[in-house]
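hey so i finaly got around to running the thing on Beta-carotene 15,15'-monooxygenase from Flavobacterium gawalongense. pasting the sequence first so u can double check i didnt mess up the copy paste, my clipboard has been acting weird all day
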Amino acid sequence: MKELDLLKKDWQKNDNSFEQVSEIEIYKMIHKKSSSIVKWILVISILEVSIWTLISLAFNTDDYFKKLKHDELIQYFEVLTIFNYGVILVFIYLFYKNYILISTTASTKQLMKDILKTRKTVQYYVWYNLGMIVFSLIIGFVIAFSYNPDVSILKDKIANDGKIMAITIGILILTIAVFFGIFWLFYRLLYGILLKRLYANYKELKKIDL
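ok and heres what it spat out for the 3d tokens, dont ask me to read them lol
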């Protein structure tokens, strides 16, 4: 927002020294910046999905389930994967739609509405991803305890000792919390900066609209 601050300072100075800048020009600058931010949100979301897809291809869960001799789990995870990609594609479509709306709008009030709408969409997208991460970890732990023969010794200890059960549950909760915190920070850095800039544009538009 440095360019906008300089523009406003010039506007407030004596117009004998500087040409007065109209609100329309300020609006155009904010409009351009907002459109660029939403475009980056769209691009980053597509890149993010692409990276996660490559990672999932590198670590094939089908082989893991076959090793456990529970091929029926493959189908369940395929359904979950299809559902997850379906939801993410809907979010990407909404990002694209928001980008088109912000790029083409010519009204200050409408631009403000579109900015708030975009921020909410990104926030929902982040919380959905964080929720799926927690859900996936829980499912992973349940499958490991239920089907992995390597965990059978630990299962016997848990069944016979309440203290070990409490420690195990504590470790699982701590693991989920750590992963949640890491990914929350990741999304905070990835999208938080863009959303902060977008909201700064909204506040500037609000000043103009008064």
